[in-house]
Amino acid sequence: xxxxxxxxxxxxxxxxxxxxxxxxxxxxxxxxxxxxxxxxxxxxxxxxxxxxxxxxxxxxxxxxxxxxxxxxxxxxxxxxxxxxxxxxxxxxxxxxxxxxxxxxxxxxxxxxxxxxxxxxxxxxxxxxxxxxxxxxxxxxxxxxxxxxxxxxxxxxxxxxxxxxxxxxxxxxxxxxxxxxxxxxxxxxxxxxxxxxxxxxxxxxxxxxxxxxxxxxxxxxxxxxxxxxxxxxxxxxxxxxxxxxxxxxxxxxxxxxxxxxxxxxxxxxxxxxxxxxxxxxxxxxxxxxxxxxxxxxxxxxxxxxxxxxxxxxxxxxxxxxxxxxxxxxxxxxxxxxxxxxxxxxxxxxxxxxxxxxxxxxxxxxxxxxxxxxxxxxxxxxxxxxxxxxxxxxxxxxxxxxxxxxxxxxxxxxxxxxxxxxxxxxxxxxxxxxxxxxxxxxxxxxxxxxxxxxxxxxxxxxxxxxxxxxxxxxxxxxxxxxxxxxxxxxxxxxxxxxxxxxxxxxxxxxxxxxxxxxxxxxxxxxxxxxxxxxxxxxxxxxxxxxxxxxxxxxxxxxxxxxxx
Length: 562
Known about the structure:
The protein is α/β, with parallel strands linked by helices and 562 residues long. Helices cover 67% and strands 8% of the residues. The strands form three sheets. A six-stranded mixed sheet has the order 6-9-10-3-11-12, sandwiched between helices.
């Protein structure tokens, strides 16, 4: 089987879920048409078998050995053809399922990377996770069912033509009976669509709740809040369960209709055909063929009902995907260039001189974070980088040249070496230097496999201080032109903090670095300190100059102590 196609780099303006499903189908038109061809031939071969069996019965009745052998050979050929087309139909069905599902994964992953910090502000974790957990399966199934769905329609048409040519009443009965069954199932689809959508939303909220509880379990245990949040999760899970039961109620009626309606049509067709045979209007072989046709029609008619169900689920899933794809980043980039230089935030007045270690202390920590976000272009702001405005530079260039390392950044699971060296270009010596600068060498030495040790999800095997030091080492390894660190030593003891401050100054010597902190140990190592109050620069100088000349700064960094 061929490898799966890559997702297109750009997605057209998709206004609704149906357009997304249609766009997905167009992207895999060739394998989809091939699968429809195999499925159609697979159904048609089965549709011809009752006629061949009927002819064989007639040959037995007439005691015509030659005809019996001929029809037996034809039946064997049809059986072999059915086996081949069945295998190919299934292969193409799996291919189309995977292609549609993982194209959706590629699109949503690319969109998540494009949105960056915008995504968690607009959507909950559960909503994004549910796309990968269930929605891609429904979108894949909506492509898969097209193969058998189209083939089943052709099979029903073929059987109808055969029955009309043999017996006009029976043919007309099938011709009008199948659409009537489709109309009878139709009223179930709208409530199914509505209940499925409500159930998906509740499942997404439940996933978000579970992720929050797991992430904050240590805090919850510290304040004794496990039982409260467990009760909330239990209540939300019950709402999701009841929503699932409501969906299952409609689906059970739909499943029942798949059995009752075709069975009713089969009984009518068989009864009328038997009356014709008793009256002598049709031979015994044709009666057998009519019965087999009636039994055969169960398959394609059930497939049509299944197609309605899966396309409905695919429509709901596509709506969730469209919701993610329709989000636009809060900030964008241009096509300008900059040779670098002074990085300045006009709103606050914070200015970072090239090659200088600057510390920003703020009376409100939120002011320092806001400045870091503007300088890193995570939010809109009037920021200049050298002679160019930051908003005019391509966003990819900004991200590669200016790194904002927040205190809330996470460690990902995988090999420690890979989690520290995210670009995969650092040597062992460079990794050791970064670990030494972050005072994290002892952490690696304590691991049995050292840098090859595995990191669990979110680095939960490390303490808060250890995680902070490893994150600092990761930021230093990227070696950006401008490095902005937000409270990089808040979780370590004073002795370690003093060593980190000294080593950080040496590691970033000659490169632009900004540290948002109110730690006197770190501020004392900075070449230039900026004090911010109410979002604006209030005083500048060295740490000791500001202690003597700015009472507000002294009160902030000494916590009001002498």
